[in-house]
Structure formats: C-alpha cells, structure tokens
Amino acid sequence: MALSPPAMRRAGLAAAMLLAAGGIAEAHGGLTMDKDYCKLRVGRYLMHFTGFQPQGDYSKEFCEDIPAVGPTIIVLDFIDDALRDLPTEVRIVKAGASETELDQTTVFHLPPKTYSSGSVALDYTFTDAGNYVGLVTVGEGDNRMVARFPFAVGTSKVLRYSLWLIVLAIGFAVAYGVWRLRRRSRVAA
To answer: H or E element: which one contains 165?
Structure first.
C-alpha cells in the first residue's frame, strides 16, 4: 500500500510524537525531578537523591543515570524526619537479576541501620557499564517499605536517542522508497 505525501507527513508526525513520548516514559521508577532536585519515594516517605563522580566534573550532580563507570558517590538525604528513627538498607543489583537471590546478584550493599544524621552516603566504584536497580528499604518486619529505581551506568541518553533517530530515518527511507516504486509502476502501466 502506497502512502500519499500527506499520509507520510502524518506518519512522520506520529513517529516524532512517539519518540518524544518515549523520552517522557523513560523516567525512572521512584525518582522524580521537582525544582531541580530528585526525590525518591519510599512508601509514604521522601528522600532527596544526589549523585557525584569525583573523577569527572565536580560541579555536575546527577539524579538518574550515572554518566560513566568509575568512583561514584550517592547521597540520600531524608526529607521526612521520621526516617531518622527507621532502619534504612540500600542495595544495588544488576538489572535483570533475580531479586529472590539478592546475595548473589548484589554489587553493593549497605546493611540496615538508623541514620540519625538524616543522610546516607554510598561510595562505590562501578566497573561495568550497564543497567542496574537500586533498592532502598526502610523500616523492619511487616512495616518494611521498598523503593526500586532502575538506572544506567556509562550509557548516554544522547546515544539512545541517536539510535532511535537512525531507526526512524531508515523507516522513513524505506517507506519513501516503497511509495516511489509503486508510484513509478502506476505511471508506467
């Protein structure tokens, strides 16, 4: 079926909207951006999430994906003071790993403890680029609340968007080529 030029423009607009929506849908699990800082929701409580990489640009902090492999410092500051009295545990596991076997799949673990200062600092050196999941557990027993947030290390959003644009451009080129071939065959007939 050949696409008319107006139909091709509508398809292009729809594809661009899907690409833009994909960027919006890519937001991470429990992390939300609000007034230039990230919040992590653990049950009814909130924590402020900030990351730094001392080997990189000191002035830039991040709150979702980690820009590069290497030494990384992540700080969780309690927004709700009630968290200061609750044990907090932090794990980082490889994405896709079974959460039922946490001891085997964990790359970083901070055992449960109370942080009366209201701040938890993680210092970990990521050696492998890829996708990870952070697990922050607050409370104990039946009152435990867990936040799961996926993040990437050493992969650029620019690269991911570039790949999507390349796939989109190839799709448009194929659709245009098919349209041109069908148009020529109609003219020749």
So the answer is: helix 157-188
Pairing, β 106-113 against β 145-153: unpaired
CB distance 94 to 132 below 8 Å: yes
Domain residue spans in the chain? 1-27+156-189, 35-154
Closest by CA to 8, choosing from 181, 177, 175, is 175
Q: How far apart are CA 64 and CA 49, in angstroms?
A: 9
Superfamily of segment(s) 35-154: Immunoglobulins (2.60.40.10)
Q: Is the pTM of this model over 0.70?
A: no
pLDDT tens-digit readout, 38-78 = 888 999 999 998 888 887 665 577 777 888 888 999 999 99
Residues with Cβ < 8 Å from 76, sequence gap 6 or more?
Answer: 40, 47, 48, 49, 88, 90, 119, 120, 121, 122, 136
Task: Give residue 184's pLDDT.
Answer: 81
